[in-house]
Amino acid sequence: xxxxxxxxxxxxxxxxxxxxxxxxxxxxxxxxxxxxxxxxxxxxxxxxxxxxxxxxxxxxxxxxxxxxxxxxxxxxxxxxxxxxxxxxxxxxxxxxxxxxxxxxxxxxxxxxxxxxxxxxxxxxxxxxxxxxxxxxxxxxxxxxxxxxxxxxxxxxxxxxxxxxxxxxxxxxxxxxxxxxxxxxxxxxxxxxxxxxxxxxxxxxxxxxxxxxxxxxxxxxxxxxxxxxxxxxxxxxxxxxxxxxxxxxxxxxxxxxxxxxxxxxxxxxxxxxxxxxxxxxxxxxxxxxxxxxxxxxxxxxxxxxxxxxxxxxxxxxxxxxxxxxxxxxxxxxxxxxxxxxxxxxxxxxxxxxxxxxxxxxxxxxxxxxxxxxxxxxxxxxxxxxxxxxxxxxxxxxxxxxx
Length: 401
Ligand SMILES: *Cc1c(COP(=O)(O)O)cnc(C)c1O
Known about the structure:
By secondary structure, the protein is α/β, with parallel strands linked by helices. It has helices spanning 21-31, 40-53, 64-74, 92-98, 118-124, 144-153, 207-216, 252-262, 265-283, 311-314, 318-327, 343-351, 362-370, 382-396, and strands at 57-61, 82-86, 103-107, 129-133, 157-161, 169-170, 173-174, 183-187, 200-204, 221-222, 240-241, 289-291, 298-299, 305-309, 371-374.
């Protein structure tokens, strides 16, 4: 772990992976095996994901972003379509629609949880809408039942962006079980709940979508003779490129790491939840800091611990807060810059006559003005969490006021 020269304390980043000897052994075993790229380990990893989430199929991808792209493609998203997603998310939640020539449409979030506002989603649906991509921001599931009911009423596909919420539950069921989504996407970037270095997956209970997701990640090539257009199959060499796909395969090296990490998912999520409760408790004593709202009918898996800081009321600049915390060996981040503010999306929304002006997104703007993500990962000790809160209090209230 890196240390900061001004404090000699270990630097606490906003998120990081937890790797143990079993993870290292799992990867080195693959290096000695016959398969390096997609092989038996990928299938085993997919089985562990599907089982943990209560889904029929898990289809592993090279990146979460590629998994979202595959889900949009499998859903039949194409040029001329509109795809609704949250104003507060990582750009990938919208880019997946843009890759296919569809128009991302941003909808404001609820003020308390910062997840997609179902009432505003209803207003944003048009004859061109094809899919809705709710985002379980910070690990707290979105209002999935309302959004799914709305989608089915209008014949739309729901692709749940669960990059933050592996291990979370909604109305007593695990995220990814498919009761309130057609497909659920996961990411295995190192800051997420489990890691494969880079990686992602789509969960679905639909056999047809699963087959399309498998085609798309492997150049659109079909190898199952039963599914060939050419019948009967001319011989053992034969395969068919049936669609224009990509190489979005996960490697066996990565899948072995992912499967080893999955054995500790419960432990990781439990520790994240403990850390969140400790933050809640300690931050109650710090004026001008509020944790994000949470709903009692769902359990967050806390990818992030995001707070609102009343920078204006405290008369302090956010950049200064972040810089001073960094000098105290504490990393923070802002999740997220509202996606419609990025020049690419601003430009394309403007050209399409879609809403991009900040005044259309009062809750996203309000949150963005106050947002700060504090360190959150299973390796944090209670003393680390206390140090974060004491440091934040020092920076926000230098005179102990
Ligand atoms: C991480 C993330 C993604 C993309 O995942 P990658 O694996 O990094 O490509 C998509 N959506 C959200 C909300 C994310 O946080």
